[in-house]
Amino acid sequence: MKEAFLQPFKDLYNEKSSDAIFALIYTAIVLTCMDYFFIPPRLESIISGQGVGGWYTPSLPAGLGWVLSCLIGFLILPAIFIKFIFKKDVSSYGFSTNQFGSHLKIYLGFFAFMFPFIYVAAQSPAFKSVYPFVPAAKISMTNFLIWEVAYISQFFALEFFFRGYLLYTLEKHMNKFLAIAVMVVPYTMIHFHKPYTETFGAVIAGCVLGFLSLRYRSWLGGALLHALVAVSADVLASLP
Q1: Number of domains present in the structure of the chain
Q2: Rounded-to-10 torsion of CA 76, 78, 79, 81
């Protein structure tokens, strides 16, 4: 009786795809936790004693708490899964400097192309109201530098997760372009609280960075590009 009940599930489950199943379910869990508990305005609500689900202007501690949650959820835990559960080397998930110099110019070229658009966008009040994520970063140079260093580290965790762990896991089970498309869906969703122009841009950026990561077998260039764009946006948005 038990075997008859379980058989349909056994037919659907393929042990060879267990890493992809695990990665996609983990993605759903970690993004839900991030949205409800750890993005700076939510975390500030918890820190200030207002409870879960609120939306408050984040302090620097709330911003740093979010960065820590990104490092744990997007980098440390996936690296542990890769190493100790699936017995793989993290370098096989794009965590590699192999021939980094040879394709660095591509990422710098993208940054040069994007900078004028960032500059124009940074002039709008809507943009200035969002960046930096932590308004306290505008109060002093010390706060700004602390925030930017933490913010940059978050992008390396983010790129490792989406253009590394998730993408390289999916690549083993489907066409490369399909793997990129699947990865871009949750990546775009983490931008839903941002200006709509940036969210639409995330669709394009996710596809391009995913393609380059698979092409050069490294996501580090994408992390550098992401960091350059983000820091530039914060600097421009902080100017009087």
Answers
A1: 1
A2: 120
Domain interval for residue 56: 18-238
pTM of this prediction? 0.91
Q: Does some domain include residue 12?
A: no
Question: From first to last of its 240 residues, what are the pLDDT tens digits of the chain?
Answer: 555 554 554 444 556 789 999 999 999 999 999 999 999 999 999 999 888 888 899 999 999 999 999 999 999 999 999 999 999 999 999 999 988 888 899 999 999 999 999 999 888 888 888 889 999 999 999 999 999 999 999 999 999 999 999 999 999 999 999 999 999 999 999 999 888 888 999 999 999 999 999 999 999 999 999 999 999 999 999 988
Asked, for residue 3, whether it belongs to a domain, the answer is no
* Tokens read off for 240: 């009087």
Residue 22 lies in a domain: yes
CB 23 within 8 A of CB 41: no
217 DSSP 8-state letter: T
**H/E element, 215:** helix 196-216
